[in-house]
Amino acid sequence: MSHANATLTPLTRLRLAQLVVDAGWTYAAAATMFMVHPRTAKKWADCYREHGRPGMADRSSRPRCSATKTPSDVVRRIVRLRWRHRLGPVQIAGRLGVPASTVHAVLTRCRINRLSHIDRVTGEPLRRYEHDHPGSLIHVDVTKPSGVRQHLRRGRLALRRTPTRREERS
């Protein structure tokens, strides 16, 4: 989709190209009318000749292929080293023989570029929940205070104090 200040939207590109191709206008005359460069008028006229009306639509600027893309097996090895050994980009780069900047780019793309984004116990990425308005989710942190264990007895929760090391020795 064209941005709000675009000189040529798909409809005006079509009008420009039809003036050049169908009505026989010169590139310079059509470009002057639409306030663009004659080279731009030629580009859209050639596109209209080749593809017709569908050729005037917006297209993605994303490249069809990336010749320097990191191979998927290297990406898997980088992610595996990050999850299992909690290594940084420099250490992973040393083990795999790839540049540290490449390792950092892969980790950023996989959203595990910071160790704080990974659960320390499981090694899995942390999942964050976002809600559309405040108060739609109440967040409760449950921790075990030191010296207290939870036991389930006959369907109800009973709290029992854990003995300290000094009490265990005596």
Mean pLDDT: 80
Sequence of strands across the biggest β-sheet: 1-2
N-to-C span:
77 Å
Sequence of secondary-structure elements: HHHHHHEEH
Helical content (DSSP H or I, runs of 4+) = 40-55%
The geometry reads as elongated
Number of strands: 2
Domain Insertion element IS150 protein InsJ-like helix-turn-helix: 13-64
Region (Disordered): 148-170
Organism: Nocardioides lentus
Protein name: Insertion element IS150 protein InsJ-like helix-turn-helix domain-containing protein
Describe this structure in words.
The structure is a single chain. The protein has 170 residues and is mostly helical. Among the domains are: 10-56, no CATH class; 72-117, Arc Repressor Mutant, subunit A. It has helices at residues 10-21, 27-34, 38-51, 72-85, 89-96, 100-109, 165-169; strands at 148-153, 156-161. The longest helix has 14 residues, at 38-51.
